[in-house]
Design a protein that fits this description.
The structure is a single chain. The chain has 3 helices and 6 strands. A 6-stranded antiparallel β-sheet has the order 1-2-4-5-6-3, covered by helices on one side. Helices cover 32% and strands 33% of the residues.
Length: 157
Protein backbone atom coordinates (compact mmCIF):
# COMPACT_ATOMS: atom_id res chain seq x y z
CA UNK A 1 0.00 0.00 0.00
CA UNK A 2 2.79 2.45 0.83
CA UNK A 3 4.32 1.89 -2.64
CA UNK A 4 0.98 2.71 -4.30
CA UNK A 5 0.70 5.91 -2.21
CA UNK A 6 4.19 6.97 -3.28
CA UNK A 7 3.53 6.26 -6.96
CA UNK A 8 0.23 8.14 -6.83
CA UNK A 9 1.84 11.03 -4.96
CA UNK A 10 4.71 11.16 -7.47
CA UNK A 11 2.28 11.42 -10.39
CA UNK A 12 0.26 14.13 -8.63
CA UNK A 13 3.41 16.07 -7.74
CA UNK A 14 4.84 16.01 -11.27
CA UNK A 15 1.50 16.93 -12.82
CA UNK A 16 0.86 19.82 -10.44
CA UNK A 17 4.35 21.33 -10.64
CA UNK A 18 4.44 21.06 -14.45
CA UNK A 19 1.01 22.72 -14.57
CA UNK A 20 2.21 25.61 -12.37
CA UNK A 21 5.25 26.11 -14.59
CA UNK A 22 2.99 26.12 -17.67
CA UNK A 23 0.83 28.77 -15.96
CA UNK A 24 3.95 30.89 -15.34
CA UNK A 25 4.93 30.66 -19.00
CA UNK A 26 1.42 31.38 -20.36
CA UNK A 27 -0.34 33.63 -17.89
CA UNK A 28 2.60 35.28 -16.14
CA UNK A 29 4.84 35.79 -19.18
CA UNK A 30 5.46 39.43 -18.20
CA UNK A 31 6.27 38.67 -14.54
CA UNK A 32 9.62 37.50 -13.18
CA UNK A 33 8.16 33.99 -12.76
CA UNK A 34 7.40 33.76 -16.47
CA UNK A 35 10.34 35.79 -17.78
CA UNK A 36 12.84 33.46 -16.09
CA UNK A 37 11.42 30.56 -18.11
CA UNK A 38 11.62 27.79 -15.46
CA UNK A 39 11.88 24.24 -16.79
CA UNK A 40 10.83 21.13 -14.84
CA UNK A 41 13.72 18.66 -14.51
CA UNK A 42 12.77 16.16 -11.79
CA UNK A 43 11.01 15.69 -8.47
CA UNK A 44 10.61 13.07 -5.77
CA UNK A 45 7.40 12.77 -3.81
CA UNK A 46 9.02 10.35 -1.35
CA UNK A 47 12.09 12.55 -0.70
CA UNK A 48 10.21 15.87 -1.05
CA UNK A 49 12.70 17.27 -3.58
CA UNK A 50 12.45 19.25 -6.80
CA UNK A 51 14.89 20.21 -9.55
CA UNK A 52 14.15 23.15 -11.85
CA UNK A 53 16.39 24.61 -14.59
CA UNK A 54 16.55 28.28 -15.55
CA UNK A 55 18.16 29.36 -18.83
CA UNK A 56 20.37 32.34 -18.01
CA UNK A 57 19.05 35.07 -20.28
CA UNK A 58 20.64 38.31 -21.46
CA UNK A 59 18.25 40.53 -19.45
CA UNK A 60 19.35 38.80 -16.23
CA UNK A 61 22.96 39.98 -16.38
CA UNK A 62 24.58 42.32 -13.90
CA UNK A 63 27.10 45.05 -14.70
CA UNK A 64 29.96 42.54 -15.07
CA UNK A 65 28.02 40.36 -17.51
CA UNK A 66 27.02 37.34 -15.41
CA UNK A 67 23.69 36.35 -13.84
CA UNK A 68 22.61 39.03 -11.36
CA UNK A 69 22.51 37.88 -7.73
CA UNK A 70 18.91 39.01 -7.48
CA UNK A 71 18.01 36.69 -10.36
CA UNK A 72 19.82 33.80 -8.67
CA UNK A 73 17.76 34.50 -5.54
CA UNK A 74 14.60 34.78 -7.65
CA UNK A 75 15.35 31.36 -9.18
CA UNK A 76 15.65 29.91 -5.67
CA UNK A 77 12.38 31.59 -4.64
CA UNK A 78 10.53 30.29 -7.71
CA UNK A 79 11.83 26.73 -7.28
CA UNK A 80 11.17 26.58 -3.53
CA UNK A 81 7.76 28.19 -4.07
CA UNK A 82 6.80 25.47 -6.54
CA UNK A 83 7.72 22.74 -4.05
CA UNK A 84 6.23 24.39 -0.98
CA UNK A 85 2.91 25.07 -2.74
CA UNK A 86 2.67 21.37 -3.54
CA UNK A 87 3.50 20.44 0.06
CA UNK A 88 1.09 23.04 1.51
CA UNK A 89 -1.70 21.72 -0.75
CA UNK A 90 -4.53 24.26 -0.53
CA UNK A 91 -2.88 26.42 2.13
CA UNK A 92 -1.40 29.83 1.37
CA UNK A 93 2.38 29.58 1.92
CA UNK A 94 4.26 32.88 1.61
CA UNK A 95 8.05 33.13 1.87
CA UNK A 96 9.06 34.42 5.30
CA UNK A 97 12.84 34.03 4.92
CA UNK A 98 15.21 33.41 2.03
CA UNK A 99 18.97 33.58 2.48
CA UNK A 100 21.33 33.13 -0.46
CA UNK A 101 25.07 32.47 -0.46
CA UNK A 102 26.86 33.23 -3.75
CA UNK A 103 29.84 31.01 -4.53
CA UNK A 104 30.73 31.54 -8.20
CA UNK A 105 29.36 33.41 -11.23
CA UNK A 106 26.73 31.93 -13.53
CA UNK A 107 27.45 32.82 -17.19
CA UNK A 108 24.82 34.32 -19.48
CA UNK A 109 23.75 31.70 -22.04
CA UNK A 110 24.29 28.81 -19.61
CA UNK A 111 21.64 27.19 -17.42
CA UNK A 112 21.22 27.59 -13.66
CA UNK A 113 19.97 24.28 -12.22
CA UNK A 114 18.30 24.49 -8.82
CA UNK A 115 17.85 21.45 -6.60
CA UNK A 116 15.49 21.95 -3.64
CA UNK A 117 15.36 19.61 -0.63
CA UNK A 118 12.76 19.81 2.12
CA UNK A 119 14.30 19.90 5.60
CA UNK A 120 10.95 20.17 7.41
CA UNK A 121 7.37 20.15 6.18
CA UNK A 122 5.45 20.93 9.34
CA UNK A 123 1.91 22.01 10.01
CA UNK A 124 2.78 25.72 10.18
CA UNK A 125 6.32 26.03 8.78
CA UNK A 126 8.23 24.55 5.87
CA UNK A 127 12.02 24.81 5.72
CA UNK A 128 13.97 24.10 2.53
CA UNK A 129 17.60 23.93 1.40
CA UNK A 130 18.71 24.69 -2.18
CA UNK A 131 21.78 24.19 -4.27
CA UNK A 132 22.22 25.95 -7.60
CA UNK A 133 24.63 24.63 -10.22
CA UNK A 134 26.09 25.90 -13.48
CA UNK A 135 24.89 23.27 -15.93
CA UNK A 136 27.88 23.39 -18.29
CA UNK A 137 30.43 22.75 -15.53
CA UNK A 138 28.35 21.01 -12.87
CA UNK A 139 29.90 23.36 -10.32
CA UNK A 140 28.00 24.68 -7.32
CA UNK A 141 27.30 28.39 -7.85
CA UNK A 142 25.04 29.28 -4.91
CA UNK A 143 23.10 27.84 -2.00
CA UNK A 144 20.01 29.06 -0.19
CA UNK A 145 17.82 28.28 2.76
CA UNK A 146 14.21 29.36 2.95
CA UNK A 147 11.23 29.22 5.27
CA UNK A 148 7.55 29.42 4.44
CA UNK A 149 4.53 29.96 6.67
CA UNK A 150 1.62 27.60 6.00
CA UNK A 151 -1.60 29.51 6.50
CA UNK A 152 -4.86 27.63 6.01
CA UNK A 153 -6.67 29.28 3.11
CA UNK A 154 -9.94 28.95 5.04
CA UNK A 155 -8.54 31.37 7.67
CA UNK A 156 -7.67 34.11 5.15
CA UNK A 157 -10.04 37.10 5.02
Amino acid sequence: MDRDRIISGQIQMETRIKSEIDTYLREQAGSVNGMMKPEFVDCSFDEKTLTVAFPVLEWEKNRVGVMHGGMITAAFDIATGLLVRFLADKNFAPTIRLETVFLRPVPIGDTFVVHVKTNLAGRKLTHLYCEGFVKSTGKLAATATSSYFNEPTSERP
